[in-house]
Design brief:
The complex is a heterotrimer of chains A (312), B (308) and C (343). With 312 residues, chain A is mainly alpha-helical. Chain A has helices at 2-9, 32-42, 44-61, 98-134, 136-151, 154-165, 174-184, 186-201, 204-211, 216-252, 264-271, 280-307. Chain C has an eight-stranded mixed beta sheet, sandwiched between helices. Chain C has a four-stranded antiparallel beta sheet with strand order 2-1-4-5, with helices on one face. Classes of the chains: A mainly alpha (312), B mainly alpha (308), C alpha/beta (343).
Amino acid sequence: MSDLEAVAATQGPTGQPPEPRHVDKRDKPRSLAGDAWNDLRRSKVFWFAAILVVVIVAMAAFPALFGAGDPRDCALSRQHGSPSGTAFFGYDFQGCDVYAKTIYGARASIEVGVLATLLSGVIGLAFGLGAGYFGGWVDAFLSRFVDIVLGIPFLLAAIVLAKRLSSDPTNNGITAVTVTLGVLGWTTAARIMRSSVIASKNQDYVAAARMLGAGPARLMMRHILPNSIAAFIVVLTILLGTNIATEATLSFLGIGLKGDAVSWGIAISEAGPYVRVAPAPLIWPSVFLAATVLAFIMLGDAIRDAFDPKLR
Amino acid sequence: MFRYIVRRLLQMVLTFFGATFIVYALMFANQDDPLQALAGERPITPNVRAVLTERYHLDDPFLLQYWYYMKGLLTGDFGTSLTQRKIWDMMEQAWPVTIRLALMAIVIAATVAVVAGVISGIRRGSVFDNVTLVITLILLSLPIVVLAPIAQLIFGIKLGWFPPTAGAHPSFYALLLPALVLGSLVIATELRVTRASVAENLRSDYVRTARAKGLTRKRVIGVHVLRNSLIPVVTLIGVDIGGLMSGAIVTEGVFNIPGVGFNLFRGIRTEDGPLVVGFVSILVIVFLVVNLLVDLLYAALDPRIRYE
Amino acid sequence: MTNITAQIDALPGLDPHAPLLEVTNLHVEFRTQYGISRAVNGANFKLAPGETLAILGESGCGKSVTAQAIMGILDSPPGFVTQGEVKYRGVDLQKLPENERRKVRANQIAMIFQDALSALNPVFTVGYQLGELFRVHRGMSRGDAKRRSVELLDQVKIPAARARIGDFPHQFSGGMRQRVMIAMALALDPEVLIADEPTTALDVTVQAQIMGLLAELQQQRNMGLILITHDMGVVADVADRISVMYAGKVVEEAPVYDIYARPAHPYTKALLESIPRLDKKGQELNVIRGLPPALTAIPKGCAFNPRCAYAQDACRQDPAPPPHIVAPGRTARCHFWTEVIGE
C-alpha cells in the first residue's frame, strides 16, 4: 500500500523560469500559499473531491440525514430481499438493510482513517523533523529504525499487529486497527518531512535567523516547518485515503473491525460467497469505498499540484 | 563501490534482525496458551504438554527463544509449524506459484505502465493523457478488496472469460486474471512516475541541444529522452517486485491460490508463530536483496551516481 | 573534411550572392494562460561570412528567443513565429518543410548554449554525443565517427582527447564542457554559429580562453558568428558589429567602436554608463531606474520610455520610433538620437 504514498512523492515536471515582472506597487505581495489557493479555487478536480469528502463526512456524522434505517435491525426473514421502504439497496444474507449498512459504514471508515492518519502524522512529524534537523547520528539512528519498519511488508505487519492488539474478543477492534495503521503508516510522511527539513535547513534565511540568535525550537517552528509543511500535508491527505482502504482490507480479512461494527470491508467480505445470488450487497459498499478513497486521493493530488511551483 | 556494498550488507543484516525480531515478538509474546490453541477443543495431557513445551522451548525466557529460533533459521532449519508440517516443505510448495504470479503481474503492469506513461508524458493534456490519468486514479483508489472480488465476479463468473479460481497448480491462463488484479496495485504509480519523468525530461536543456543538432524527433525522444526518463521507473519496478510478493495476500485468498500470502494469512489467523516468522523472514530477505540490487542498478544506469 | 557544398546545392532557392544570414521583421509571441507575451517585435539582423555580430541586452529582452527562432527550435506551442523571414543565403527557412529545415541545423547553422552541464545529455558519453552527429548526418561507421570525434576534441584543445572520449559530461570542468559543446557545434562544419551566452556560466579567466578559442576557430573556417550576451566587456573584444535589443526590438545597431564611443540610443548610453569604472571610485554606481517591461504588457510608443532620461510626449505614443539612419551601417530607434549622440 506504500505505493500509494509513492504517488505523493512523484515530482511534477520542471518548467521555464518566469518572465521578469514589472512590479506594480499596487499588487498585494504574493505568497506561495496565496498562489496555491488561487489555483486550487479554479481546479475542478479540487472542488469535485472536496464536495465528495464533505458528503462522506456528513454520512459519517449524520447518517439519519440520508434517510438510513438501522443497520443492525436484521431479520433472517428478509434475507436477500429486494428494496423496500428506505432500504433502497435491498437486504443482505443476514436480512440487514444494505443501504443503512452502506451509509453507516462511512462512520467507521472516517473515524479510523482520520485518527490513524493523525497518529501517523504526529509520529512522522517528530521523526522527520528530528532526523532532518539534528542530522548526524540522530538521523542515522532514526533512519535505521525507519528501514526496519519498512523491512516488514506493510500488509503483513498490519495483520500481525492488528491480530495481536485485538485479542480481546469483546471490543469491536477500532482502537486496534487505528493504532495498527497509525504505527505503520508514518514512514513516508517522515521521509518527506525529513527531506523538506534538510532542504530548508541549508537555506540562507535559516542561517540568517540563527545568526540573529534563534534557538533550535524557534528555528524549527517559525522558519523550517512552514516551508516543509506543504508536501507533508499532501502525503497525509493521500495517507487518509490509503488508511481507509487498508481498514477495509483488514476488515475483509477478518482482522480489522469485528463484533457488531459496521464497516464496508466486513460487508464486502460477507457478501462475497453469495455474490452469484445477490450482487447488490457486494457492489454498493464497494462503490462507496472506492469513491471515498478516490475523493481523498484526488484531494491530495489537487493540493500537491497547486503547491508545486514547477507546474505553473 | 566495494565499501558501499559492505555498508549496505551490514545495514541489511541489522534490518533483517530488527524486522524478524519485531515479528517474532508480536507472534509469540503474550500468547495465552499456544499449545491449547493448537489442540483446539481436545484437552492436552500433561505428558504431551511437557514434550511439546520442551521442543518449542516455551519455558525459556523470551529472548532465549528468539535466539534458538534464529540459530535454527540461519542453519537452514525453519522448524516445524504448529500443524506439524515442516516449514521448509510448505515453502517449497508455496513460493513457486507466488513467484510466477508476481512475475506475471509485474511484466504486464510494467509494460502497460511504461508504454502508456511515455505516450501520456509526450502528449500531456491530450485526450489519451486525461483518460489514462482518470483510469489510474480509479485504479489507485480501488482497494484490492474491492477489485479482486469484483473482477472475479465479472470476468470469472458472469462473463466466464477466465476460470474464477486458480488452485494449486494453475495453468498460465488461469493465473492471468489474478496477475492482472495484482498488477493493478502497482500499474498506477508506475504509469504516473513514467509520465512525470518523461514530461520533465522533455523540458530539459539537452533536448534543446539535441534538436539543435538536427536530430529527428523520433531520435530525440526515443534515444535521448527515454534513456533518461526510464531510470526512475526501472528502479521503481524493481522495488515493486518485492512488494508484490507480499501484497498478494488478498489476491491469493480470493482466487484460491495456495501461495506465500495465502499460507501466511492462514498462519497469522491460527497464531502459528513458527510458520509466520519463517515465511516473513524469507520475505524480508527477498525484499532487502531486491532493494540492494535496485540501488546498484540505479548506479549502473545513471553515470552521475557513483557510490563510495 | 567532407564536401559541404554538395549539401548547400540541394536547398531550393539558394542564392550565393545573398547575405549569409538575414533576419527580417521577426515577430515571436508566446501564448500563455497569463496573456500573450511578445518576445520579439520586429527584429532585423544581417550576417556576413567571417563576421561577428553581438546581440546585446538584458535578461528577457528576446535574444535567446530570436536565436531559437532562427534555428527553428522554439517550443511551439506556446511559442509562435507570427511574422518575418529568416533567410539563409536567400532561402527562407520558415518556408522549408521540417525535414529539410532539420538538415540545415548543425550542417549549416549550429548553436551552442549557456550551461553546458545541462545542455549535454548526462547519460551518454561525450564521444557518443559527438559521434552521433557523424553517424546520423554523414552515415559514418562507429569507428570513423569516433576518430573524427577525437580530432574535434583536439581542435578545441581538450588535453588527452583520446582518453576523454569515453567520459561523461559531469566529469569535465565547466570550461572543458563548453569546449565539448563547441566541438559538437562545429562537427559538421557549419557556416553560421550562434553562441547563446557561452561564457556567462564560466570564470573570467576561462571566459577569455573560450572567447579566444571561438575567435580562432571562426577565423580558420570563415564562419559567421552571432554572439548573444549581456556582458559588454566580452563584446568589446570580439564583436565586429553590435545589435542592442530591448523588449523584443533592435534599438540600436552599429559597428563596435562607434557604439562604445558615441552611442545613439538612450538605452545603450545608459548601459555603458552603468559599467563600473575604476576612475569613478568612491562615487555611486549609475543604474537604469525601473525594470524591463513584462512582455505581456509592453508600453505604448517606445518601450523604453518609462525609464528614459530623454523621453518626451512623442515617445509615449504609438507609433514606436522607426530605425533612424545615424550613419551608413548605423541605425537607432529613437526620435531624439541626435541629442543622445551629441553629448
